[in-house]
Amino acid sequence: MVKSNGLRVVLFPLPLQGVINPMIQLAKILHSRGFSITVIHTRFNAPKASSHPLFTFVEIPDGLSETEATTEDVTLLLTLLNQNCESPFRDCLNKLFQSAEKEKERISCLIDDSGWVFTQPLSQSLNLPRLVLNTFKVSFFTNHFLLPQLRHLTLLDSKQDDPVEEFPPLRKKEVLQILTEVLDSYSDMMLEQTKASSGLIFMSCEELDQDSLTQAREYFNVPIFMMGPSHIQFPASSSSLLSPDESSISWLDKQEDKSVIYVSFGSISTVSKSELMEIAWGLSNTDQPFLWVVRGCSDVQGKEWTEAIPEELMERLKEKGKIVKWAPQQEVLKHRAIGGFLTHNGWNSTVESICEGVPMICLPFRWDQLLNARFVTEVWMVGIHLEGKIERNEIEKAIRRLLLETEGEATRERMELLKEKVGSSVKQNGSAYRSVESLIDYISSF
Ligand code: UDX
């Protein structure tokens, strides 16, 4: 039992799986160092309080309709959440302050996500320091604020694959794709409020973000902390919003070492029915077993997506692989049978794959995933890029290259080295270990 230090930290994650996981891991780190934890969360995608009996959970209404809650349009979702949650969050924070006063406890700070754009003025008015947790790679978070200045780029000329100097190693076409999702007014607010905050915390480490840390420190001009791949010490499975299919592990137990390709596109992105078919054929045409997470199709309602796959193909798929709705991803990636990960390159998935030394086949869909995939394939060289081609032959070819050919062996060797470097960051005196120590000192000093 850890001795309480009499300080309480209030956490307010955005209700997205990829944000809840790092936030709960940070809560576990802080709790292990004596802080009491309160998590304020929306009704939508509420974390499972019963999985964390040592934390206090407080729910606020988010006003989302059923249709709004199922949208894949993250920008729309964030806009609605920011509109609807400001007043309930203010009431909730005021109540927490009143009860802390009664119990003679001190709330030392608020830690929330950079996507909340109303919390900075609110915490300032209460004299409460606010730290911003960000779940992107440091270089993405920093450089994406410069994107509005790149609106002069156009798709009209032929140089779409040229690198963009201001945002390496992204290609012009990728910068243009990301730009379609940038809401300038929202982005300006986020930047202003991040700069006014008491500090930034990234779920990354120097070993992965060396290229951008100095620039980020100058740009935001606030202390920056790197919590590292904390899931190594505090697995994210307890913060899963869906129940992971544990039979994935017993199925993997029956497969040969490094033979299985794991396929998952995170918690938000889904493919269309025709793309699903191409992936199904691609997987079926290789001789490798696979574990495939399918949450649904973007253009097929409910669970009917299985009907999109012809019976004969489904039979072949079942013979060679396993399809689940949600997997215990960290355990899966850790399993000796996994040989590669066909991924959308969400930052969590990318870091989890690196930490288990699993080379990747990259199929990014949007936003920071496009940058993460370029780092995986061109900077760290620990994966193969599908270049957006969701085609059966391309998928089959990439799986063969990664699992059966010498190119795959070399990729795996580079991945082992990266795994060692990143893993050592959270060990005693590693870069993330030291950064977390200074974060604890910093929060304790408020
Ligand atoms: C999104 C963005 O894509 C990501 O880049 C950003 O940093 C956070 O928000 P998401 O698309 O869900 O997140 O992907 P990712 O960041 O990879 O997070 C998914 C999480 O869900 C991972 O921790 C992964 O382990 C977990 N997961 C995924 C499971 O536990 N089981 C599954 O079957 C699939």
TrEMBL record:
UniProt keyword annotations, A-Z: Glycosyltransferase, Transferase
Pfam families, A to Z: UDPGT (PF00201)
Domain of life from the UniProt record: Eukaryota
InterPro entries on file: UDP_glucos_trans
Keyword Lyase among record annotations: no
Entry keyword annotation includes Metal-binding: no
GO terms for MF: glycosyltransferase activity
Family recorded in the similarity comment: Belongs to the UDP-glycosyltransferase family.
The protein's name in its UniProt record: UDP-glycosyltransferase 76C4
